[in-house]
Amino acid sequence: MASERDAFWAWFSANAARLQELARTDASEVANEVGDQLQQLGVPLQPEIGVSPVGPVELVLHTEGNRERFELARTFVRHAPTLAGWEYTALRPAMGFELSLRYQGHELDAKELWFLPLPSAQEPTRLGVRLGLPRYAAEHEDALWTGSMILLSSALGEASAVEDIDSLEVVQLPEQPRTQGYLPLHELPATLAQRKRGA
Questions:
Q1: CA dist 83 to 15, 19, 32, 74, 87, Å?
Q2: How many angstroms separate the CA atoms of 148 and 33, rounded?
């Protein structure tokens, strides 16, 4: 996919100044335009645009959690041009646990979520996660599962969410979660790190 990669970065370089200016007022439009270009070239990556009041605009190229495409994203970023006012990241970075999102009408707030670690004998460096949701509804389990996976990907970072978590379940949060072995979600990174050290 080297020719597609070179064609994308050539297009991006030619439009970088305009896209950077537009990102300050409409980051979603920039993401749409970059995404359209990737799609036209047949590149199976998704863009996100990060904008801060000061500093460069960030282009994140991610895979929607598709582990088989991680190296493609990393290779694209390794070949990114050096352009003033831009920085590049392969895969969604870790954003921490002060996060909330709305997915298909369901509110998911990381500060309200608890998890039960589910060790796997087959995958000693990875961990299954049973996620307790305060507003669980069985009839919406598919949407809640997908929203929870997006939340974990944002909180942990895309690579960790895919490579360190063996499986994900979503359930109703028990009334007394700690007595049933659940931990607050913000303790998940330390639990994953401990799992890898003990493997």
A1: 11, 12, 20, 18, 8
A2: 27
Amino acid at 132: G
Q: What is the DSSP string of 76-123?
A: HHHT----TTEEEEESPPP--S--EEEETTEEEEGGG-EEEEEE-SSS
- Give the residue ranges of the chain where pLDDT is below 70: 198-199
Tell me what pLDDT residue 156 has.
Answer: 95
Count of beta carbons in the 10 Å neighbourhood of residue 51: 15
Assign 157 to helix, strand or coil. coil
Tokens 């359930």 map to which residue?
A: 171
Please report how many Cα atoms fall inside a 13 Å half-sphere around the Cα of residue 58, on the Cβ side.
15
What single-letter DSSP state applies at residue 173?
P
Backbone phi and psi for residue 57, each to the nearest 5 degrees, phi listed first:
-85, 140
CA 180 to chain centre: 29
pLDDT at position 199 is: 55
C-beta of residue 99 within 8 angstroms of C-beta of residue 156: no
For residue 103, what pLDDT is reported?
93
